[in-house]
Design goal:
This protein has 23 helices and 17 strands. By secondary structure, the chain is an alpha/beta fold. The protein folds into four domains: 208 residues, no CATH class; 128 residues, tt1808, chain A (Alpha-Beta Complex); 195 residues, Rossmann fold; 102 residues, no CATH class. The chain has a seven-stranded parallel β-sheet. α1 packs antiparallel against α2 and α5 packs across α6. The termini are far apart.
């Protein structure tokens, strides 16, 4: 009998994948990890489809689903960690060409077992499994498959599964063709979610006494994170390393993990505490271990302490402890230790006057440097008016930080491809030796400055090369956010949480209008950015000119439509229309009614087209910060354009309150 048989009654699709994983565990670990991940994905997507407490994240990948805040609040940190272990080992099985160890399959199945138990306990309507049930590796089926499951075959299965899901979604969308069908379906879904919520509440009322083996999960997750950062942990001295000089009865201690450099000296240590305790409980003990290792090897290691769910890094010679998403790679730790002696004071490193020459740009760079160096802060926000040279300022900042040995690699993030291309060109013009890399078009090139859109970077974070992440948490020393605002905070904060780096935000939004979330992201008091240079100050200093109003000829939208202004043929159509149930025919349609129907994307496009057609052209190769102004345009039409029948019919519907549609392209 399968150890996952408790899934079969209420969650048969999840059971089917789990059973395949169970059968393959001993003789095909790669397939076992793959099918376990598939079982998890099936379960999680069922939860999102049926539980109203879960909010859909920015996309529907498994990684996004299990890291969504509402999911973590529902299942708890322990189950999120189990889900991540299953996901990552499953991904490695599909993409990593190296052999998959049998232990990986056993670990994956154990974590899937506990997640599946929680799923059934929480949502099943029928009999629940015994709380004392535990996963037994010794009971895994000892069978031999006739056909060996190869990596290529698994990749084909994964692609077919994704294609099937997409086809089902498209078929469902095609089936729901009318608003009535959609409303009926939404009513059914709401009813089903209410039933599921009632079942969940009833199940959660009973105390959960199941042992979720959190200590095993902690150890597996720490091992997984270290492996992803390139630490093989294949030497005896990597774990439980003995040290002397501890302040206890024997003077001895054992360091949970030691990460070694090529020179045989420790680069870092990891202190693992119990899952039910705050990770910071291990801070003092980790410091004592660092003292012992420093005394023995003559170099102080970087300190990590964790409970498996929360991870803290402490380079106690430079910065206070800070929360991190994982562990640094060997070269990143070597660079961190090297900086202890190689870094220079920013006050002694000049700012390149060929990149920036204005006083406020120099001031902004100095203030960011003071925040990083003197105040031991790692985040800064610059508020600068459009046209004041934000990009040049940050290029000069990166140049200074690199020459001071504080930054080796930097990441510049923008929300549009056009801005990425513009930034790459700016780096090539002002700082060509850093070899800027456009990650949107060239994801494999190496350099010192990387430029990317937010969605591209989200995808690259999970990219693996032989089981090791391409971009570890310490890959970038500095991240620059172009146009930092609320949507960036809400949708892409995972990027900033993942990378352990300095963070600089750029925005042209007036400091009093920046939302609280943005100031919170940079750990600043609301209304008090690191430095500010607003439009009024730039105008007063003569660097910018005040904006001038541009009058765009839109008489139709401003004055409405009058019957007397229409041509004779359209007056006849006007008279023939059924304007109201009592037969009343209006003699005009006011501007408010027109704009209610007409103000759409096409109208905006036409206004912008007018601006770019008649506005002053600027060559971006020249100094873009010189004073600019748009010509004052006050042209208006002298006669009302002819209105089409579709326009009149729609306006009639508005007046009657019965029109719900808007044409995609208005005639005027």
């Amino acid at each position: 009998m399968s150890q996952f048989s408790f899934l079969q009654s209420d969650f048969s699709p999840v059971f089917d994948h789990a059973r395949k994983a169970e059968v393959a565990a001993l003789n095909d670990p790669r397939a076992a990890c793959f099918y376990a991940r598939l079982a998890l994905e099936t379960a999680v997507k069922w939860m999102y489809a049926h539980d109203a407490a879960l909010r859909q994240p920015y996309n529907d990948t498994l990684s996004a689903l299990i890291h969504e805040g509402s999911f973590r609040a529902l299942v708890g940190s322990a189950l999120v960690t189990k889900a991540r272990i299953i996901k990552d080992l499953g991904n490695r099985a599909v993409h990593d060409t190296r052999p998959v160890a049998a232990q990986a399959a056993t670990t994956t199945l154990r974590e899937l077992f506990h997640f599946s138990y929680w799923l059934v306990r929480t949502y099943a309507r029928g009999i629940k499994p015994n709380p004392g049930v535990q996963f037994a590796p010794g009971d895994l089926p000892k069978t031999t498959q006739v056909e060996e499951t190869t990596l290529a075959r698994l990749q084909t299965i994964a692609k077919d599964y994704a294609d099937k899901e997409q086809a089902q979604a498209e078929a469902e969308s095609a089936r729901i063709q009318t608003e009535e069908q959609r409303a009926e379906l939404e009513t059914q879904i709401a009813k089903l979610k209410a039933e599921i919520a009632a079942v969940r509440n009833a199940n959660e009322a009973a105390t959960d006494t199941h042992d979720y083996s959190e200590a095993q999960t902690r150890d597996a997750f720490i091992d997984l994170l270290l492996h992803e950062s390139g630490w093989p942990l294949d030497q005896e001295r990597d774990r439980e390393f003995p040290v002397a000089g501890m302040p206890n009865n024997t003077g001895e201690g054992f360091v949970d993990y030691v990460l070694w450099g090529d020179d045989g000296k420790p680069l870092a240590l990891v202190e693992a505490k119990r899952t039910k305790r705050d990770a910071r409980v291990g801070q003092q003990q980790a410091k004592l271990y660092a003292d012992c290792l420093e005394k023995q090897f003559g170099r102080r290691p970087v300190i990590f302490y964790t409970n498996g769910y929360e991870h803290w890094m402490w380079d106690d010679e430079s910065y206070p402890p800070r929360s991190v998403q994982g562990f640094l790679k060997k070269d990143e730790l070597e660079l961190l230790i090297q900086r202890r002696t190689a870094r220079k004071s920013l006050a002694a490193v000049n700012i390149d006057g060929d990149i920036v020459e204005r006083h406020y740009q120099h001031r902004a760079i100095r203030r960011v440097g003071e925040a990083f160096e003197k105040n031991c802060q790692r985040k800064a926000l610059l508020v600068m008016a459009t046209g004041a040279g934000k990009t040049r300022t940050v290029i000069a900042l990166i140049d200074q930080l690199m020459r001071a040995n504080l930054v080796k690699r930097a990441l510049f993030l923008a929300d549009r491809v056009a801005l990425v291309n513009q930034a790459v060109n700016a780096f090539k013009a002002h700082l060509p030796h850093v070899a800027p890399v456009n990650l949107v078009t060239d994801k494999s090139t190496e350099g010192r400055v990387y430029v990317s859109t937010y969605p591209t970077m989200v995808g690259l974070i999970d990219e693996m090369q032989n089981g090791v992440r391409r971009f570890g948490p310490g890959h970038f020393d500095l991240i620059v956010i172009d146009e930092a605002h609320r949507s960036v905070y809400r949708k892409y904060r995972a990027i900033f949480d993942y990378f352990d780096s300095y963070l600089v935000g750029l925005t042209a939004t007036p400091r009093d209008e920046i939302d609280r979330d943005t100031y919170g992201l940079f750990e600043l008091e609301r209304g008090v950015p690191t430095d500010s240079y607003d439009l009024d100050k730039a105008v007063a200093d003569g660097y910018l000119v005040p904006p001038e109003a541009v009058s765009v000829p839109l008489k139709f939208q401003r004055q409405g439509i009058k019957y007397d202004d229409l041509p004779e043929d359209e007056k006849e159509e006007w008279d023939a229309l059924e304007w109201s149930e009592d037969g009343t025919v209006p003699d005009s349609v006011d501007a408010a009614a027109v704009n209610k129907w007409l103000f759409n994307a096409d109208t905006v496009d036409k206004v912008l087209e007018h601006v770019v057609t008649h506005g002053l052209k600027v060559n971006e190769a020249t100094d873009s910060a010189r004073p600019l102004s748009l010509p004052k345009i006050t042209t208006t039409r002298t006669s009302l354009p002819s209105a089409s029948m579709r326009t009149i019919r729609t306006l009639r519907g508005i007046l009657r309150g019965s029109s719900t549609s808007k044409p995609s392209t208005p005639n005027r």
